[in-house]
Input
Amino acid sequence: MNPSTTEPPSTQSRKADHIRICLEEDVQCRQATSGLENYRFTHCCLPELDYQDIDLKAKFLHKQLGAPILISSMTGGTSQAGMINQRLAQVAQQYNLAMGVGSQRVAVEKPEVADTFAMRKYAPDALLFANLGAVQLNYEYGLEQCLKAIDILQANALILHINPLQECIQPRGDKNFRGLFDKINNLCSKLPLPVIAKEVGNGISVHMAQKLIEAGVAAIDVAGTGGTSWAKVESERAENSLQQRLGRTFSDWGLSTAECITSIRAIAPDIPLIASGGLRHGLDAGKAIALGANLAGFAMPFLKAAADSEEAVDELAQILIAELKTVLFCTGNQNLKQLQNSDSLIG
Ligand SMILES: Cc1cc2nc3c(=O)[nH]c(=O)nc-3n(C[C@H](O)[C@H](O)[C@H](O)COP(=O)(O)O)c2cc1C
Output
């Protein structure tokens, strides 16, 4: 979709391309999976619970949520993106879920599109995450731009997305990642809100997680493989055969969501941890939480629903919640803590 009547600047048209490609093309990983399919729950035939007592409440970064579900960072910057964000924000408010917006670089540079990210008015009580690319810290971004992104959304925390593979493939990608740990460290010490480090579908290794924690991030979203492949998305936008070939070659690159969660949780028992990348239903969310995640993030499923209608987003939230409750009920666990402390998951 052309976002405006005039020639759009490149960051804005990229946003429109991403939505169109994600909705129209097959951009899911082909062979790489989330790893969650390797786990099964033990069925409990006598849960000794009343279903109505199942409690999905979760705490993340000191905020109480109705369910451990994150609508992952996706978009903003065009009128279509603004509508998608609004539909997502209303549902985040309705069910008390967490929500992220897409990279706000376009709004920092073009204040007239800031309202397509300004979701606080639709979600006054929700846990909202601002979003900027970590690599922008090497391209003249600093505390001021981060505060601006937070201010636009009136966010509770800032996600710094880390996307080296995507930058390699996309036209004119920002590929200088040198010195970023120090810059993240500096930002974390100055920003008055928590910083969350997040990949975009290639995963965060235990070694990188350790260094990010040392740099001061308050939480990690592993965004592993198995779902949307940004190499594939960018190969669909390629301007030449080299970019197209790169995107195809690396379409399944990365670490699975399950392996990231288990390995990071093993060395950092207390770090707030988000599982995302390839989660497609509440059963996936249940497995990710049983493996040690605090929140389960979904991007593509919410994009498809939001592009459809307000009702579709509402219905998706209800389905995810019902699926997650069913996991708890049929494993005999009343709440998320019990699920995490149980031996219900085998794999
Ligand atoms: C249309 C679209 C745009 C996205 N834009 C961003 C972004 O700006 N910043 C970010 O951190 N992640 C972005 N992502 C990545 C998602 O947050 C998520 O990490 C990734 O898609 C894997 O999750 P999934 O398999 O549920 O789609 C985007 C995803 C989609 C589908």
Residues 1-9 have pLDDT under 50 and may be disordered.
